[in-house]
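Standup notes, structure subgroup. Blocker cleared on the magnesium ion input:
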Amino acid sequence: MPVAIRFENSYAEELQGLYVPWQGQEWPDPQVLLLNTALAERLGLDAQALQGADGARLLTGQTLPDSARPLAQAYAGHQFGGFSPQLGDGRALLLGEIVDPMGKRHDLHLKGSGRTPFARGGDGRAVLGPVLREYLISEAMHALGVPTTRALAVCTTGDRVLRQNGLEPGAVLARIAASHLRVGTFQFFAARGERDKLRLLLDYAVARHDPDLTGASDAALRFLERVGARQARLVAQWMGLGFIHGVMNTDNMTISGETIDYGPCAFMDRYDPATVFSSIDHQGRYAYANQPAILLWNLARLAEALLSLIDADEERAIARASEVIEATRARYRDAWLGVFATKLGLFQPDPALIEGMHALWVGQGVDFTSFFRALPDAVQGQDTELAALFAAPGQDLTDWLAEYRGVCRAQGADVAQMDKANPVYIPRNHLVEETLSAASETGDMDLFLALLTRVQNPFEPAAGAERYARPAPEEAPQIVTFCGT
Ligand code: AMP
Ligand code: MG
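Run returned:
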């Protein structure tokens, strides 16, 4: 018996031409390995039923309730700057939408459900390590207060899939998102010159994400502005955590402002603005410090796609869209200053202080996360722990701390609040790798679950968990991450 979920299907009903109806592949032995029960309950789903055999059949796309209309979404996208007019879900399915008890609509999406007509050369599969990685990092992001798609479940399929290190356990990730509309979704119709369908898509996106703009004569322009505002806040939050997304292609930038696609992402340990983890990002296009510039570049691609809906006169449309992009640049800067002001326990951003802090870190190998946890003591005069994070703590650090103390006094800052904004635990790469290897090589989930518990409670130091707060040893090799895993 299929698990009883009443799916709605607004995407399937309203956006013909943007998908192919499709089914999941058959698997030998689908099993639920991990269910996000808290999320299931928030969605109003029956967690117990999902945990069992029928749940495994639903969450791997085998047996669906009648209300599901599974489909593979079409989209286009700029990947590393080059445009592909047709990408689409090569190994994923949208099962349908779930309206939660609060009335909020969510996509339920499977990744690793088999080849689709958009698979190109891919095998349509996902394997356990990367699927667990997405579960872990997206849960961490959620606990850190960052908008993100969320993992509902990890299932194993019972067969093995060939990857670069040999055969690995096949897996399917069930993912929840406010929607899977991306910049690339708009680019799909724009590239085909299908203005009527583009208009339908805009109306759909507005109804779903910015319903107050429904019917507005300048809806396209204001929608662009909203997407820019959401993305500016999102990227500012990433910057405040040392998060490097790794593959900010336009097909991986959501309209909702949620982080999506956890393939090659990683958190930076020691501060270096040029940090890149992805094996294919040779130019550093998606390096830590380049993320805000890429956000604006991607937004310009969305603007291009929307031009014909912004104004019939192309020149005027370009002028208006350019204003929005410039406004987003300023908005990002404000969001970035706001994020770092909060990390410093300040009520008002102090740009000179914040920029001075970034300058302090350069070339010092400072662990980005630990710096902020050592600050409350340092500002109260005990700066040994903070200074120990620097390769060569100098006068500039002493001077900056004095300046910081002055700003704290002037603003009546409450340093006790800082620990609520600065995590002790992030999914550090060496810990992530260690837990994923254990899970996929020996089936041992204990290390994974221990790390998951830490990153789900990132602000609360736990007894005996010191190793989770430390960066990798300095001599450890730099972690390399991969796309399409
Ligand atoms: P990503 O880098 O994960 O954003 O993926 C880019 C595109 O490649 C998307 O269209 C994916 O659906 C597709 N893709 C990635 N891995 C696979 C795979 N193993 N099989 C089929 N399609 C894939
Ligand atoms: Mg993607």
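Discussed briefly. The longest helix spans residues 314-343.
Next: hand off to the docking folks.
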